[in-house]
Design a protein that fits this description.
globular; alpha+beta
Length: 88
């Protein structure tokens, strides 16, 4: 999986509105995996899709887990969670 370029301050892509994720397909799965690899290679703990040039409403995060060291979590802007349930 490739390491993606990370866009930083004052890049136009960072000011554009992301599009909601409507379904999971091969391209989204690949983007998610590439984002995790990119985030870990930069020693980061979170990364939004627009930071790697994609306007998909998606972000990833990693946080410590007592069981296996770290846990990966992809999130979509179209998935709002409250009390562990998907909001209507």
């Amino acid at each position: 999986m490739p390491i993606l370029p990370i866009y930083v301050y004052d890049q136009p892509v960072l000011r554009r509105r992301a599009k909601p994720v409507r379904g999971i397909d091969g391209a989204l799965t690949k983007l998610t995996e590439d984002m995790f690899e990119t985030m870990h290679s930069a020693n980061g703990i979170g990364l939004a899709a627009n930071q790697v040039g994609s306007l998909r409403g998606l972000w990833s995060s990693t946080f410590p887990s007592p069981k296996n060291g770290r846990t990966r979590s992809p999130w979509s802007s179209s998935t709002r969670r409250s009390s562990g349930r998907k909001a209507k």
